[in-house]
Amino acid sequence: MAVQKKLRAILTDEGVLIKSQSHHMFNKHGQLRNGDSLSLLSCLSCLDDGTLSSDGGSFDEDDSLELLPLNTTIPFNRILNAKRLNIDQRRLNNGKFSSDPFQAENVSSSSENDEVENRSLSNDKVQPQPAASDVHSLSNKNKWDSKTSNIEASPDSLHDAIPTLGMKDNQHLIELTFAVPKGHDVVPQKLTLLIDHVSKKSRTNPKSELTSSGVVEEILEKSYENSRRNRSILVIINPHGGKGTAKTLFLTKASPILVESGCKIEIAYTKYARHAIDIARDLDISKYDTIACASGDGIPYEVINGLFRRPDRVDAFNKVAVTQLPCGSGNAMSISCHWTNNPSYAALCLVKSIETRIDLMCCSQPSYMNEWPRLSFLSQTYGVIAESDINTEFIRWMGPIRFNLGVAFNIFQGRKYPCEVFVKYAAKSKKELKVHFLENKDKNKGCLAFESNSNPNSSSDILSTNNNNKTKNELSPNFLTGDNFKLKYPMTEPVPSDWEKMDSELTDNLTIFYTGKMPYIAKDTKFFPAALPADGTIDLVITDARIPVTKMTPILLSLDKGSHVLEPEVIHSKILAYKIIPKVKSGLFSVDGEKFPLEPLQVEVMPMLCKTLLRNGRYIDTEFESM
Ligand SMILES: Nc1ncnc2c1ncn2[C@@H]1O[C@H](COP(=O)(O)OP(=O)(O)OP(=O)(O)O)[C@@H](O)[C@H]1O
């Protein structure tokens, strides 16, 4: 490997602009190479598109490390980390370098962080404790295999870099780590740069111009604008998730991005069904700001309900963001929130996301409501889809297609699921719904759960206080109190008079009853295209068996586009609460993909209860606006 003579760069408002004067940067194997010009732009600019496709990317194998023209920019949204490099003068005898001439110093990480890395999940107060052997810390100390994705300067090549020894005050040797597409994934890549100019901001701020730390800090500030740096993450892996691939998917695809971004990671493996409820209920929440579920949608459901069962649930929901790294068979949360079904892109989105509060839904049924009502983040369904979701488990080997087959089979058999439904509407007609959507689609800014102006490295949101003895977040309108957890419509009380009973002609012939809060319920199934993260409503979609098969077929075939809700035969409303009373003798409800008993079910929206991570602070664009 050879370092080019002057690997220079400047900071711009968009990112780090490579101004290398010589050629060759790296080849397809990630090694610095001779004879070609450098351009990072063509691969770096793919990020936005790559995360949108359902498999997480549409890049050719060779796209990732193709050589790129000069004068191109590594955008801040791709930069994971920056460290200043100190040349150890003691090793510079007779112009020769030792094999480790650079000492990297990460300005953003503190010794306090190192402490956290080595703690285990176990805590004396926590019962039951995950066994220490099940909890692993990951950090830069045990890096991913960097053979192909880590560019390092070889000792010999540093002769070329010697000019850096005579660096001017405004020149800084910086190791930059950034994400590049590789195959279908995104991987971390390192580059050593001599940054000899700084951005306008630094030029007007002499303090940051003078030090390398100032330059590093400026890069990190811009790279993590509106996001929290150096997250402390508990990763919960369901080893059975995704047909047994969840652990490998996490370790090979998501973990490298998280580690290189400076996140502190601890891993807990689920050992039995519903173990994640116990883990979240008994967790030492002071240690983490994020719980990332490397799983399908089952584990986030369990984590949210585990947090809900804590005596300190208010603190827990104020402190911890729950997110998903898509490693299961159903990854609706990641597709909706990170805009991708690919674990490496989801990890990149995780570190770059905006912490946002989203609404949850609280479900009550006679058999469990006196113990714990259940919180649902995704959906509840009854009828054809519930049966197809749960009762096709025996053909799980077929993958997601089993669900579509099940739905089609049940519908074409003319099956119906009589019930009574009572609804509190927020927007009943499709026209009202559209108005509601347009009025609320940009309101997410008010839902920021994280004060972007606060020190992003402070993990003590709850502990730090201001003069009035209140934390900055406590003063935020998004700070939760016990009142946020109180039900407005307890099931023990009669149905309120302002709820409407749905036409029994319709409900006696019901085929699909589906309520949800996220746009995607599965890959390629945009069931709730008008869903918004925190509009305080639940989307309701209903079909009935009076719809002829000739009309039902195009409705089912348009689920991937989400345009089924426009069909006149499909009921689509925004609601605040409902009660459904099944009239069939056998069957089930499916709540977030979990089997629930066939009993009356009452649900109400719980506004902005859960902190999560949304790319750009919003759900994936469903194009509902232009439908
Ligand atoms: N060790 C375990 N043994 C048995 N079941 C487990 C274990 N760990 C988790 N589970 C259960 O697996 C279920 C599915 O989890 P998850 O959503 O992560 O996976 P998935 O691949 O998407 O599967 P599904 O298609 O069922 O949603 C959850 O109900 C969870 O309680």
Automatic annotation (TrEMBL):
InterPro entries: ATP-NAD_kinase_N, Diacylglycerol_kinase_cat_dom, Lipid_Phosphate_FormReg, NAD/diacylglycerol_kinase_sf
A GO biological process held by the record: calcium-mediated signaling
Encoding gene, per UniProt annotation: YOR171C
Organism: Saccharomyces kudriavzevii (strain ATCC MYA-4449 / AS 2.2408 / CBS 8840 / NBRC 1802 / NCYC 2889) (Yeast)
Cellular compartment(s): Golgi apparatus membrane
Protein name per the record: sphingosine kinase
EC class (word): transferase
GO molecular function: ATP binding; sphingosine kinase activity
Major location (coarse): Golgi
Keywords (A to Z) from UniProt: ATP-binding, Kinase, Lipid metabolism, Lipoprotein, Membrane, Nucleotide-binding, Palmitate, Sphingolipid metabolism, Transferase
Pfam family, one: DAGK_cat
Nucleotide-binding found in the keyword field: yes
Catalytic activity: a sphingoid base + ATP = a sphingoid 1-phosphate + ADP + H(+); sphinganine + ATP = sphinganine 1-phosphate + ADP + H(+); (4R)-hydroxysphinganine + ATP = (4R)-hydroxysphinganine 1-phosphate + ADP + H(+)
EC annotation from Swiss-Prot or TrEMBL: 2.7.1.91
Record flagged with keyword Repeat: no
GO cellular component terms attached to this protein's record: Golgi membrane
Membrane topology note: Peripheral membrane protein
